[in-house]
Amino acid sequence: MMTRRPSEGYTLIEILIVLFILSIVTSVALLSIGRNDNKRFATFADELTETISLAKEQALLQSSVLGLTIEDHALHFGALSTEGGKNQWLPLQDNVLQKYRIPSGIQLTVRTSDSTNVTPNHGSPQIIISANGELTPFTIYIGKPNEKPRYVVIGDEDGDVTNKTLS
User: Fold this and answer.
1) pLDDT value at position 1?
2) In this structure, are strands 66-70 and 74-81 parallel, antiparallel, or unpaired?
């Protein structure tokens, strides 16, 4: 008779959560040490890229459809619920992918493949992350309000999310 030993090690989601928490702590430390706008924008772009990538991993692990809604001063994730034959977006009750305030002095401009500019929407998400890791192709420009953007976060339909500096 074989006895089952408890499995050893960490799950992928535990490792991702630790990495995400470390990136937030690092971001806060960098923002408090340096007041340089470029560092702030770069840190925010990196954090946004990591957060979207983490949401993609969570959608894969939980076999659920997630959506990212970007509003004027905040961004948040929701999960698609089909209860009662009705599709509706419910806010995620997740400590990691919770509502996140966009720091003052940072403006986001979202463009998706099916539109030129997406205005902040209080209902349906602008970016959909499917259960198989694909997502709505998007470009998010990051910069000061009423100035040329300094950074861009790009997501393609295969689920790859990257960021880069604009010259």
Assistant:
1) 59
2) antiparallel
